[in-house]
# Entry
Amino acid sequence: MPQLSKARDLTLTLVAIGIKEHNIFWEYESGSHEDREKLQQLLETVKQGDTIACTEVSRLSRSTKQLCEILEFVEKNKIKLIAGTFIVDCRNDEIDPMTMGMLRMMAVFAQMERDITIQRIRSGMENAKAKGKQIGRKKTSENDIPAPFFRYYCCAPLSLTYN
# Structure
């Protein structure tokens, strides 16, 4: 619940400074996915002169390629981009080379951070497997599920009886 509370507080703050609530897009999908529904809605909604704001570059994308595509979109459509404390204003002109370079470096580090995290998870799973630990959820059969569950959530198997 704390996540929802933070989101609601931020929404109220954004509305208080004049942003319409229907223009606030909350993305809960990984920034590494290229086909993200809320990001696509955002990019389809913004028009020339609008502002896109996010808490940090990695929240916009953890893929260097995708971030470069978003930066091209921002530049082409003359949009202001705020990523944390980093402001890129393309409403009057294009992104200067130093800013573009910094944003690309941020994207490289966001993607590298993601790749390192995945590598560590896989390594930990391999170590656990080597020590004989079970990885993932334990297999479950109908016999492991309490009979009342079937009463409320699905059709009960004919072999079960209820009191």
In short: The chain has six helices and three strands.
